[in-house]
Design goal:
The chain is mainly alpha-helical and 311 residues long. The chain has a domain of 160 residues: MetI-like (MetI-like fold, Orthogonal Bundle). 70% of the residues lie in helices and 4% in strands. It has a two-stranded antiparallel sheet. A hairpin with a 5-residue loop joins strand 1 and strand 2. The longest helix is centred in the N-terminal third of the chain and has 32 residues. It starts with a helix and ends in a 9-residue tail after the last helix.
Length: 311
């Protein structure tokens, strides 16, 4: 008969039986996915076999040089308008948060005007700008003029489109910037003031760099939205953009459906590239904001020996 010590030792070495975990089944998900895939397949098959789409015309104009040139103009207009919107939006946001009541009122009035009227109406007014103002002159009243611009002889629809889109975008970017600035804790401002920084230095050196992780995601969405909003510059009129080129072509061959599909394809490709860039930009500015380790950080930690330090 084994003694008690032997029984205790043998019992301690026995491992518990493994747990047989049965994964929870979700048949509803598979059924819903199958239904959606079937509906998508039916739609794609119907579109591919529908002669009214005129896929031969679509393939003919997909790589047309006029369409490609229009895409370049659309990108240039998007970049220029967003630069105006971002720079002016930062200025308006700082004015909105300024202790100066005059600056706050001017900023609020700007946002009220440009956010309260449709962008298409604003672009129409910019197209009629030469009819509203014959010339722009700066100088002393009843005295010499330092600057004179004859608006009647100025034919620059791209310039007016850039200004119209950029000034409208600045109103929305100002609210995005203000939300990002407000997301920074009050203690950061108090610490900067305690270090002897002025209000402007506190904004540029402390608040705005930390607010970027809140500002970047909606700003990326605004860039994508601006790319699509450029199709409204037909109100000026400006016909050298992507949609304008497609419209001119189908006005000549009377085949709007395939040309609209061509323009939509180009818009989809460009927005897809912008979305990828936005993803990496958000990930860059999100460093330190989450406890989840990146792949590079996990690989670095894996090289640390037990009880050692990272080389």
């Amino acid at each position: 008969m084994p003694d008690s010590d032997t029984e205790f030792t043998s019992g301690a070495t026995e491992l518990p039986a493994p747990i047989r975990a049965v994964p929870l089944r979700h048949p509803g998900r598979w059924i819903a996915a199958a239904i959606l895939l079937a509906l998508l397949g039916l739609f794609l098959y119907g579109a591919a076999t529908n002669p009214n789409y005129q896929w031969n015309v679509y393939r003919q104009y997909l790589g047309d040089t006029r369409i490609a040139q229009g895409a370049v103009v659309t990108l240039e207009l998007t970049v220029a308008a967003m630069l105006i919107g971002v720079v002016l939006g930062v200025l308006l946001a700082v004015m909105r948060l300024s202790p100066n009541p005059v600056l706050r009122i001017v900023s609020w009035a700007y946002l009220w005007l440009f956010r309260g009227t449709p962008v298409y109406v604003q672009l129409v007014f910019w197209g009629l700008f030469p009819s509203l103002y014959k010339a722009i002159a700066l100088g002393i009243p009843f005295g010499p003029q330092f600057f004179h611009l004859d608006v009647q002889n100025l034919s620059a629809p791209f310039l007016f489109a850039m200004l119209g889109l950029g000034l409208n975008e600045a109103a929305y970017m100002a609210e995005i910037m203000r939300a990002g600035i407000d997301s920074v804790g009050e203690g950061q401002r108090e610490a900067s003031i305690a270090l002897g920084m002025s209000w402007g230095q506190t904004m540029t050196r402390t608040v705005l760099p930390q607010a970027m992780r809140v500002i970047i995601p909606p700003t990326g969405n605004e860039v994508i939205s601006m790319l699509k909003t450029t199709s409204l510059v037909a109100a000026l009129p400006l016909t050298t953009d992507l949609y304008g080129r497609a419209r001119d072509i189908y006005a000549a061959n009377f085949k709007p459906i395939p040309l609209l599909l061509v323009a939509a394809t180009w818009y989809l490709v460009i927005t897809s590239v912008l979305m990828v860039g936005q993803f990496y930009l958000e990930r860059y500015f999100a460093k330190g904001a989450t406890r989840q380790l990146t792949g590079r950080q996990r690989r670095a930690l894996a090289r640390i020996p037990d009880g050692g330090e990272l080389e």
